[in-house]
Design a protein that fits this description.
This protein is mainly α. The protein is built from six helices and no strands.
């Protein structure tokens, strides 16, 4: 179960980083709850979709499943590190509407769908795991808006880099286990 908690924290770093950027834009009243609900819901749903896809493919790729999980987590982690070193898109957002939040929630949770494949290799209750991922993301998103409101975006890239490194380490652990 500790792997699921670490995975949840790592996956939530994308939403955390985006939330910091959103919080730095100004009016944060209600934005923390809005970000938490959008990002948390999608981060809970997408790994479940990835898990279902992984279960469907597991029979065909079982001999290579640890390598596939490692590859996916390493790619996701590398992408997060790259994004952490790059400029965020939050600067280009003029208004934080429901449409913008929906698009950001989908964009930050696509990685979680790929990571959901790794849940097929862990001996965990997938419903509990996805709930933990969603609740963790909700908390980090809310916290990100609060931090962004108070301190600006200085932590934004660091959060994504941290999440990327953790995902790569989880992939390595799955490979050597």
């Amino acid at each position: 179960m500790i792997e699921v908690i670490v995975l949840a924290i790592a996956l939530s770093m994308d939403a955390f980083a985006v939330s910091i950027g959103l919080g730095s834009k100004g009016d944060a009243r209600g934005l923390g709850l809005k970000a938490g609900l959008y990002f948390g819901s999608f981060q809970a749903l997408m790994p479940f979709i990835g898990y279902l896809a992984g279960r469907g493919l597991l029979g065909w790729v079982e001999a290579w499943s640890h390598w596939i999980a490692f590859g996916l987590l390493a790619l996701i982690g590398g992408k997060m590190i790259y994004e952490g070193l790059s400029e965020g898109i939050e600067e280009d957002i003029a208004a934080i509407t429901h449409k913008v939040m929906l698009l950001l929630a989908i964009a930050t949770s696509i990685d979680a769908m790929a990571a959901g494949f790794s849940l097929t290799l862990l001996d965990v209750n997938v419903y509990l795991a996805c709930t933990i991922i969603g609740v963790t993301t909700f908390a980090f998103s809310w916290l990100g808006v609060v931090i962004g409101k108070r301190s600006g975006t200085w932590l934004e890239g660091k959060a994504e880099i941290f999440g990327g490194v953790v995902l790569i380490l989880i992939g390595i652990k799955m490979l050597v286990s």
